[in-house]
Amino acid sequence: MLISLKEILPPHLTKLLFAIAALLALPLVGIAAEAPRSGGELVFAVGGTPPSYDGHRETTFAMLHPVAPHYSTLLRFDPQNYPKIVGDVAESWQVSKDRLTYTFKVRKGVQFHDGSVLTAKDVKATYDKIIFPPEGVVSARQATYAVVDKIETPDDQTIVFRLKHPSASFLANLASPWNFIYKADILAKDPRWYEKNIMGTGPFTFVEYVAGSHWVGKKNPNYFMKGRPYLDGYKAVIIRDTAPRVAAVRSGQALVEFRGFNPAARDDIVKTAGNQVVVQESPWVCNLTVTLNNEKKPFDDVRVRRALTLAIDRWAASKTLSQISVMKYVGGLFRPGSEFAMPESELVKLAGFGKNIEAARTEAKKLLREAGVPEGFSFTLKNRNVREPYEVTGVYVIDQWRQIGLNVNHVQQEEGAYFNDFRQGNFEAGIDFSCDFMDDPDLQLFKFISSEKSPVNYARYKDSVLDELYDKQSRATDPKERLKLLRQFEKRVIDEKAYQFPPTLWWQRIVPHSVKLKGWKITPSHYVNQDLRDVWIAQ
Amino acid sequence: MRQYILKRLLLMIPTLFGVAVLIFFLLRVLPGDIVELKYAGSGSYAPKEALDRERTRLGLDQPIWKQFVTWIVGIPRLEFGTSMWTGQPITHEIAIRLELSIELALMATFIAVLISIPLGVLAAVKQDTWIDYCVRIFSIAGMAMPSFWLGIVIILAFVIYFRWLPPLTFTSFWVDPKANLTQLIWPALAVGYRYSAVATRMTRSAVLEVLREDYIRTARAKGLWERAVLTRHALKNALLPVITVIGIEFAFLVGGLVVTEQVFNLNGIGKLFVEAISQRDYTMVQSLVLLTSFIFIFVNFLIDLINAYLDPRIRFR
What we know:
The complex is a heterodimer.
Chain A: H1 5-8, H2 11-33, E1 41-46, H3 61-67, E2 75-77, E3 85-87, E4 90-95, E5 101-106, H4 120-131, E6 148-155, E7 158-163, H5 170-174, H6 184-189, E8 204-210, E9 214-219, E10 233-238, H7 242-251, E11 256-257, H8 263-273, E12 277-292, H9 302-310, H10 314-324, E13 327-329, H11 344-347, H12 357-370, E14 378-384, H13 387-402, E15 407-413, H14 415-424, E16 429-435, H15 441-444, H16 464-475, H17 479-496, E17 500-501, E18 506-514, E19 517-518, E20 536-537
Helix pairs in contact in A: 7-8, 9-12, 16-17
Chain B: H1 2-29, H2 34-39, H3 48-58, H4 64-74, H5 90-125, H6 130-144, H7 147-162, H8 177-211, H9 214-221, H10 226-256, H11 258-263, H12 269-278, H13 282-310, H14 312-315
Helix pairs in contact in B: 1-13, 5-6, 5-8, 5-10, 6-8, 7-8, 8-10, 9-10, 10-13, 12-13
């Protein structure tokens, strides 16, 4: 028998109780309002055109941002807790005690967009293509998987990676956002099929790509995560030039541009759009490096190289450059704030990172005199003809070097000439860049090992000590031991040898976006968290 | 007349061949190659051997003369190959953008003609009056003001004051005329204004010159109405240089609106041109240069035909 409150309480007390209940329920209403909403098409801007559709061969975000929502990866970085690694199509995994065998269980029921079921064979075919690419196929990150000896699939749900030696970064490398899982049957017929076609297991299926204009995807109803994605679809609009890209976000035509803007654009968008935008900011796994051609005189002399790094006031740069550019955080070879970053107390002891700039410059002048470099010595700094942050940084370091009596000519080149000169060694000093999807030292330090081992070391030096340290840290299984090796490596590159060094600062990632965009969290890499499966649009 | 047309058509062949030779070898002088640009970037750890294999696949390891022969023999068969950057057929890549570029050029030309001819004639007829001064200010301002700057002003005005922008992506006129015109009218106005300024100045000076000719004085002396003098005698003859200017401007607009396309984010031929050059997409740049050269030569040919039609002295020379 049901008894109504009205029957047992006086009317005024009943009203009071309802009022209290309503007040208590208010926060819940607020939460309910933030509950993900299904539907809608996300329009976002991308600042470039995808060269091909193949994540294994490309290196640009312009491919990754529109294409990533079509694919799954074996593992992924948890965007809520970057750089924590979670499974994507991998349900679970085990690492052997000797750290030479990694065994993954693949989720059941994951389907490709054509309805076929994903098995461990597809994962193996994918990684075979990345690690052991067949003739005529380029794998951009092949070198980072050199540790893999072989890949086995004992059954349809199990995939085993056998390594040649332990690797501290191996698991994180399997979370690479570039490693889209492809279909084995397709790869067997044509390993280059994926350059022009899409067939994945991701949250969105492919609709159309109009070259140079836009890319469209729609919700995959058979996506393995029930209830995801929230969006009905997405449209990535290609807007290469910054001004119209800013205008698109400012007007709300594009809800977001995921790579990010500089502080001026951020302020511009916030000023115009007001409370219709929110801004997410994060340190960025990107930095610029002063690369000195160690084969050219006088840069073959460690005293000259040390003088050049000593002259740069990074702490002052942090205050000034961060106002006008994405350059912000003072750091060594690792992103400040990352688990590998050198603490400030140690950093200030390295050449060029001390806080007494006058003393540093006095020492720099002394080193130049000892090396026989005359007052007013002139050389050329080659740089990309991209205003921000390259030109800004180039101008800054030239000004710093001028203060120790050096006369530096700033040559800004368009990309083709710039890369050509760097590859050929046709430069004295230059501004080089680095941007990656994770902080792991195997990736971050690859640029600094001997040039014969690293195609991206443009400073053209050989250093067996660094190579050995690199190998040791890569194989280190104890994090503390690894950190110790990293400190030695960092000290040698930046301080003792000063082969090449971070000129000023690590970048800040600034993403202003519409308040309607929900479920997306900024990470320190613009390559990560782009599959859009958690993204939704508020009304 | 037929012989004249044939002669002009045949002249196109050596001209286009010259352009082809020039652009092929000029591109090879530029430092850097497409493979370096693709794989020397951040996050790329591709070994040198892989890059060399990619060069081989693209035919870049072949002697330059052989690359040239391979490319040039395909042109008469209209086989332009594939883009080195995207791997897609070049005809497909160009076709996507050509409709927009031609439509924009036509709209800008239409706007320019609509403004320039009446204003130019008016300024000439009312020479040194306040009307003439106003037209001169209008046209000089148009010439002095870069169309991309006017474009930026238009965009800023729309965004800041109306929080509105033209659609971000191109819709064909045949699919949705309203969406199409909403997107293209603003760049067409920005470009058309500058274009009309040039044509207005040209029309004014051409009409002024013709109005001083003896046959105009004769026409007036025999009592013809001023309107008839202007339209039948003055304007027809004054149009020859104006048509030449309009034609050349039109041909330029098809591939030359690089900055305007960037400002309005239009997916046109100009933007493709810049991207292809910066990416060292040799096959794409070569094909685009040939295409724009062909358009230029063909439009010039049409101008000559129109001039020959309007002025019999040309075709009988």
